[in-house]
Each structure stands twice: as C-alpha cells, then as structure tokens.
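User: My advisor asked me to double-check a structure prediction for 5-formyltetrahydrofolate cyclo-ligase before group meeting. I don't want to rely on an old file, so could you generate it fresh from this sequence?
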Amino acid sequence: MSDLEQRKAAARKAGFARRKAAHAATNGASSALLSEVLAGYRGVPLSGYVPIRTEIDPLPAMAEAAAHGPVGVPVILGAGKPLRFSRWEPGGAMRDGPFGASVPEVDDFLDPEIVIVPLVAFDLNGGRLGYGGGFYDRTLERLRRKRATLAIGFAYDAQLAEDLPLEATDQPLDLIVTESRVLTPGL
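Assistant: Sure, here is a fresh prediction for 5-formyltetrahydrofolate cyclo-ligase from the sequence you gave:
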C-alpha cells in the first residue's frame, strides 16, 4: 500500500467515525438547507442518492425537487465505470442495488446538471473523500466534459477535515451543504 493509500485509508476511518457520531447525535439530521439550495434550481435535472449506513438523508429535499423536474439516483453498472442516474420518484418501486443502495425498479436514465454527492469527509477547498471506488470522480468528469455540472456535497458538519489526501483525478465540490450551513469552497 502506497503512502497516499495509507493516508486515504486513515482519513476514511476517521471520517466514518465522525459521520457515525454525527448521525447518532442528529437522528439523520435535516435536509432543510439542501431544500433551500435546490429551490434556486427548480426544474433542473438533478441526482441525489438513497442513503446507506450513516449518510445524511437527502430524500426530503429530493422529493421537493421531484415536484418541479427530473430527479435521479445513482446506479452502479460495474467496477471502473461511471455511474448512471435512473429517474426516481417519491414512493416509486425500488430494488436492491450494489452496496446496499436502493435503485428504481425500472431504469430510466437521465444526465443530471446537479449532482448531490454523498461523502466520507470534505475540506473547505471543495475536496471530497468518498468510499474509494472512484465512481463519483469518473462520473463528474464525464458529465463536466459535456456541460457545466454542479457538484453539491451533502454531509454533516462533523465530516469536515483538514488536509485531505487528494489526487489529481479527484473532482472538486462546488458547494457543500451540511445540517447547519452552506459552504462555497475557497471563500
């Protein structure tokens, strides 16, 4: 294991622990600020995610957004491949997908212009540490080649970290929304 891989593994372990504690302390927290941010983009195709483990829950904000335009959730098509996003509706039929995340029963793929990104840790420069599979980095890179794509990290305040071990292929977040604030990286 390289030095970078060791530092990422340690940062993930610490991020998971902070996220777990924050999740327990907030009972899943609130997506009220995420709803406020998304209200400025009514009708713009977006993707969220169905939370797993101790991820902060974006589903209420996604349900509000779905009343105004298309909302998708990620579908993993295989290792090393970018994610695809299948149209999601509140209360729609779902099936089990890889890694324990639910996906729509029937795939109806869309390309979002806004991607709500789950994460393990983030920094104030828009750096994001995920699970290590590179799915969101490959996906954001693919989407951003086609058109401007807004990446919104959704996390607990406690997931903030300093000096994240990042690589050139890591795609930056444009905004970070927590249970208590909206952060613009670099400001």
